[in-house]
Task: inverse folding
């Protein structure tokens, strides 16, 4: 018995026709198909390399001085990190980069009272042979986890808005022929890309300001630095991210391939730029790789302003890296930009 397609309702037939055409289009796009297979493999391999320890540590304890013989140091799932600077390590406890600091010379320890990990480690310490250690008080206002987390959330939101909000638009312009029509005008690629950068930047900054001010009314974030410095860092970070989005879409005509490349750019930054957790104690090679990511410099500079009260001069390294990356991305993007 043969199947009669005319028995299917017209609306459903149109749906099936579009579905079939879209599937064929995707399968015939070999680059997009290959990327959608390759990208998850690369992501899984990268995460496996970053977190490949047989027993993943749940807690980070900084140790100032020599580690004496103690059963506390044999605690499983606790990573003990030797440090050479006491004051700098106390700041890391405030910013939740480490959960506890042990000073073996003065037999004292520090935790952040708002840290659940710190509370658990204090209980473990009191049950060990180091129960005589005195609890040290952190000078200044205690940094809550939400204060440490806010720069990461704002930076991540800026990253997604810049990369996907610009990359997909450029690809769509190229796909529907709008860029081909612009090619007939005196407009240069650099002028076009620069206009895209500033157009998107004011939108990102406006959204970030609204989110910051709105949430600050309820959470009262710690702000020890200058709001102007914070705005300048976010403006420079936005330009850098937008330039990266334009570079990634400078020659791509497939939205599926653009999505794969943008995912490859965003996911490493989400996990390695300090959005959710600190890389303190992770392999040195991983920390050095994180410094190549623009989001790392945006978040580190923002946290330094908000939590440490750092000025622009103290952030010169981050500002220089973001500026150089912006110029590099715009130069390469305009050099290899394809209208059609």
Result:
């Amino acid at each position: 018995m043969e199947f009669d397609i005319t028995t299917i309702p017209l609306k459903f037939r149109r749906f099936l026709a579009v579905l079939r055409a879209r599937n064929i289009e995707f399968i015939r796009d070999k680059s997009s198909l290959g990327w959608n297979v390759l990208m998850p493999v690369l992501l899984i391999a990268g995460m496996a390399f970053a977190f490949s320890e047989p027993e993943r540590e749940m807690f980070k304890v900084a140790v100032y001085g020599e580690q004496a013989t103690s059963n506390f140091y044999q605690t499983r799932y606790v990573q003990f990190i030797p440090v050479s600077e006491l004051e700098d390590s106390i700041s890391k406890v405030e910013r939740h980069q480490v959960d506890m600091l042990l000073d073996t010379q003065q037999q004292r320890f520090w935790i952040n009272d708002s840290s659940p990990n710190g509370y658990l480690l204090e209980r473990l310490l009191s049950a060990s042979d180091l129960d005589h250690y005195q609890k040290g008080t952190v000078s200044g206002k205690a940094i809550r986890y939400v204060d440490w987390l806010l720069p990461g959330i704002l930076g991540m939101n800026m990253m997604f808005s810049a990369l996907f909000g610009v990359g997909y638009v450029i690809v769509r312009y190229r796909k529907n022929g709008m860029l081909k029509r612009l090619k007939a005008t005196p407009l240069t690629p650099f002028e076009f890309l620069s206009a895209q950068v500033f157009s998107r930047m004011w939108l990102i900054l406006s959204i970030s300001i609204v989110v910051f001010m709105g949430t600050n009314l309820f959470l009262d974030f710690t702000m020890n630095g200058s709001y102007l410095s914070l705005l300048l860092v976010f403006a420079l970070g936005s330009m850098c991210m937008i330039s990266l989005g334009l570079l990634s879409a400078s020659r791509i005509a497939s939205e599926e391939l653009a999505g794969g490349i943008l995912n490859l750019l965003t996911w490493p930054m989400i996990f390695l730029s300090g959005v959710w957790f600190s890389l303190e104690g992770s392999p040195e090679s991983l920390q050095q790789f994180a410094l190549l990511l623009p989001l790392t410099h945006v978040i580190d500079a923002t946290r330094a302003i908000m939590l440490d009260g750092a000025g622009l001069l103290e952030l010169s390294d981050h500002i220089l890296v973001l500026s150089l990356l912006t110029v590099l991305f715009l130069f390469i993007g305009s050099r290899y930009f394809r209208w059609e």
DSSP finds twelve helices and five strands in the chain. The chain has two domains: 59-135, 145-335. The CA atoms of residues 237 and 298 lie 6 Å apart. The mean pLDDT is 78.
